[in-house]
Structures are given as structure tokens and as C-alpha cells.
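lol forgot to send this yesterday, sorry. C-alpha cells for the thing we talked abt
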């Protein structure tokens, strides 16, 4: 692509999806859905709003001052999209989702580098650059412009490059040099994926309309709901003893004592390991399924809502528990799945299977002197259970559920005289290899080591 001057570029404007202007009395208008009131409009400005309501408006040169001023106001309010084109060929667009922080600068011959937080992905047939702290997305329509994102000269001329990098810097997608985001602790301390996860899994600039955020049941009519119980494994079944809850209701350690005496235990007594009765009691008190409600409404899919001792958003309960047993009196060593409905263990793999050993080995970094756990409770999420209903936020909710279950395990183990410690990480690939589950269907999201404390 060739070109010689900024006059070769056209700047077009269009209402962003859902926006429009409602003209009122002469010189007044309301921009919806923001309900922004515009007053004192000149006739030429009212004409611009009518033109925008009819479709995109493009300018080959700088528009008259009243028009330019109103376009700046609409752009700063996040009401219109801006597209830079050469002739009839679109190059890139700025697609706002909130108001801008400053006026659009004039292009300058100044180079920049892509922000470490900017990601480029395909959305339908478009390439979209997104940044968690920007006020807009940048939609790249031209392959030569897309090449600039790599830092290479690409196949575009300096006029296009100057315009593109100027707009990327203005929108926060680019920074003057790579060191800018490494020199301040605030920016350097966040890894890109964590900042993205934080911004995209909470209500904010992109989620204020609730159109595609939260419990939308987006999969209704497209996919069947994921059932409450997972597919069983083929391994042998181990019956677990169930505790006497009525007796525990009167004899158990008080909640305050359990809370105040809870500690993270990192050393365990292999000469006196926990028993099958204790493992059964712990799982029964923390993770069993007490019942399943079936919800049937006309015109909607039948959904199953379990009940367990810990809370879960929407009563969905996507978590599964896999005890990796190394040393428990009455249970053969191996990896098991806890059937929370039947209160049984179903064998998944041998303890010496390479994938199971890979699951266990990181626990040695958590425990004293590199010892291995008596039992490691691996928590997995059947993500589809919650992702069928929720948009954007489900993985964040899954991790909240891991925290809830972890605290329940901590307090119950303490009340039982057992010791436990949570891990902040786990080998997700090893879990997939050990269970044979597709990570998109069921994935490792947490681990909790438990056993008989030493001393």
C-alpha cells in the first residue's frame, strides 16, 4: 500500500451499536442510551446528528469547526466509532465501550511499542486488539496495518503508520517504549493474564449493560445443560463410612475453637495415618451431595441443582473431589474420584502411574522436608456446569468456590483432630493425563493436603 499525505486518509464516524440521537426542540438532542443532553446545537450540528442516524459519515478533510467539535464530544462520550480508511478501504476502527480520557491527538512521526497488556484475537471475521485498561477496542481491517503490531515496518506507508501508532498510544494500546510498563511497580506487578482475568470477570466498562455478563443462560436452546453427576469411572468402588451427624451436632468442636485453632499443617505422622473412617467423615461433612432438585419450566431446559454442605453460586456445584491416597488405613493407595451422591470412592489410577506421581510431587514443595502427603484432595471443576449459565465470570466464581470448599475442609479437619494445608497451585496437565478427562470439560482448580499431624 502506498500513499504520501494525511489527506489520503478518510476518517469516518458511526454510532456505536445501540446508540442514536433523538432530536428535540431546535438546537437540542439527546444521545441514547447514555441520555446525554446536547443543547445550543447549530443547524450544521443537527444535520450531522441526522446524518449519523442514517448511517456512517466520512470526511476526506478536516470538517468545519462546529462539526469537528461535536464529533469530539460524541467520541469522548463513547457514543460513536471512528474508522480510518484509505479511499473506500477501511484500515482500522476505534470501537469505544466507555468515554475517552482525552481528545484525539494529531498524528505525529513518533513511534511506540505495543503495550504488554494488549492482546490481538479474532472476533468473527475481524482482528480485534483489546486492552484491559483502554476505553476502546481497536479493530484491524487491513493486513498491512495488522503487520505493524509486530513492530515491523509492514507494508503500509508512513502516513498510515503515524496515524495508527498515534491512535494506539492515545487509546492506551501502545506506550512510548517498552520500559514504561516495567519501571513502575503498579504495572510491573501485574502479569497480563491476571489483569485481563480481573477486568473481564467483574462488572465494569464492558459489563455494565449486563447483556453478556452474569447468569444469562446463554446456552439455552443451543446446548443441553451439563448434568449434576459426572460420568463414572470404571475402577473398583470403595464404600466409605458415614459419620453420625446427630452425635456430632452435640459433641463436635465449637466453630470458634476450630476457627481460632486452625493452622496449616506441613508435617504428618506416617506411622499413624488417618483412617478410612476419618476420610469418609471428612468427605461426608464437606463435600457430599445431600440431594438434587430438578427444575422444570415451560420452554426451558431441565436443570439439576444439587445441595452440599458448602455454598455454591446458583446451587450449581461444579466442583468434584479426587482423593489421591498414599497412606490411609483401610484404603488401598491410588487416585480415586469421590462419588458425592453415593458417598463412595471410585478408583481412577494407580498411585505409581506417572501422571499421578506428577500430581503428587508439587505437594512436596508445600510440606516439611519434602515429604509426600498422606492424602491430597484434588479439586476439579466440571466447568460446563457453571459456564452453561454464566458468561464472562464463571471461572472467577469457580475459584471462589474452591476457596469456600478449602475453608470448609480446613475447619472440619481441625475439628476432627486432623491437619491440612492448601496448595496455591497444581499440575493441570497431570490431572488431565491421570483422569483422561478433556480439560475443557473438567480441569484441576485446587488441592488440599490432609492427614494425621506429626507430634
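and heres what i got for the seq, position by position
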Amino acid at each position: 500500500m502506498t500513499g504520501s499525505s494525511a489527506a489520503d486518509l478518510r476518517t469516518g464516524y458511526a454510532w456505536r451499536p445501540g446508540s442514536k440521537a433523538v432530536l428535540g426542540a431546535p438546537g437540542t438532542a439527546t444521545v441514547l442510551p447514555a441520555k446525554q443532553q446536547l443543547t445550543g446545537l447549530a443547524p450544521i450540528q443537527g444535520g450531522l446528528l441526522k446524518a449519523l442516524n442514517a448511517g456512517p459519515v466520512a470526511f476526506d478533510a478536516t470538517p468545519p469547526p462546529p462539526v469537528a467539535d461535536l464529533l469530539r464530544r460524541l467520541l469522548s462520550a463513547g457514543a460513536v466509532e471512528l474508522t480510518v480508511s484509505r479511499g473506500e478501504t477501511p484500515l482500522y476502527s476505534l470501537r469505544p465501550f466507555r468515554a475517552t480520557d482525552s481528545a484525539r491527538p494529531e498524528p505525529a512521526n513518533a513511534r511506540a511499542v505495543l503495550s504488554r497488556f494488549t492482546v490481538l484475537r479474532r472476533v468473527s471475521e475481524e482482528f480485534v486488539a483489546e486492552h484491559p485498561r483502554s476505553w476502546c477496542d481497536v479493530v484491524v481491517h487491513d493486513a498491512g496495518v495488522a503487520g505493524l503490531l509486530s513492530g515491523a515496518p509492514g507494508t503500509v506507508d508512513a502516513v498510515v503508520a503515524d496515524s495508527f501508532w498515534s491512535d494506539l498510544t492515545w487509546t492506551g494500546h501502545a506506550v512510548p517504549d517498552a520500559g514504561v510498563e516495567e519501571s513502575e511497580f503498579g504495572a510491573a506487578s501485574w502479569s497480563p493474564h491476571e489483569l485481563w482475568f480481573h477486568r473481564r470477570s467483574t462488572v465494569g466498562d464492558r459489563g455494565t449493560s449486563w447483556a453478556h455478563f452474569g447468569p444469562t443462560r446463554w446456552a439455552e436452546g443451543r446446548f443441553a445443560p451439563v448434568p449434576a453427576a459426572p460420568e463414572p469411572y470404571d475402577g473398583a468402588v470403595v464404600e466409605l463410612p458415614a459419620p453420625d451427624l446427630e452425635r456430632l451436632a452435640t459433641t463436635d468442636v465449637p466453630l470458634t475453637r476450630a476457627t481460632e485453632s486452625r493452622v496449616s499443617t506441613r508435617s504428618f505422622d506416617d506411622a499413624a495415618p488417618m483412617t478410612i473412617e476419618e476420610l469418609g467423615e471428612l468427605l461426608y461433612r464437606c463435600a457430599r451431595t445431600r440431594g438434587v432438585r430438578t427444575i422444570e419450566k415451560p420452554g426451558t431446559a431441565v436443570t439439576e441443582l444439587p445441595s452440599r454442605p458448602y455454598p455454591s453460586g446458583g446451587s450449581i456445584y461444579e466442583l468434584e473431589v479426587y482423593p489421591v491416597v498414599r497412606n490411609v488405613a483401610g484404603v488401598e493407595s491410588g487416585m480415586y474420584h469421590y462419588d458425592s451422591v453415593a458417598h463412595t470412592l471410585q478408583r481412577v489410577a494407580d498411585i505409581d502411574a506417572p501422571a499421578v506421581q506428577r500430581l503428587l510431587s508439587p505437594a512436596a514443595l508445600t510440606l516439611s522436608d519434602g515429604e509426600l502427603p498422606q492424602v491430597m484432595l484434588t479439586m476439579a471443576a466440571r466447568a460446563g456446569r457453571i459456564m452453561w449459565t454464566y458468561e464472562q465470570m464463571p471461572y472467577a466464581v469457580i475459584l471462589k468456590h474452591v476457596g469456600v470448599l478449602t475453608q470448609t475442609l480446613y475447619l472440619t479437619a481441625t475439628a476432627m483432630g486432623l491437619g491440612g494445608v492448601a496448595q496455591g497451585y497444581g499440575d493441570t496437565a497431570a490431572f488431565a493425563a491421570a483422569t483422561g478427562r478433556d480439560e475443557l470439560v473438567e480441569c484441576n482448580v485446587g488441592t488440599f493436603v490432609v492427614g494425621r499431624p506429626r507430634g
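Residues 6-200 form one domain. anyway ping me if u want another try
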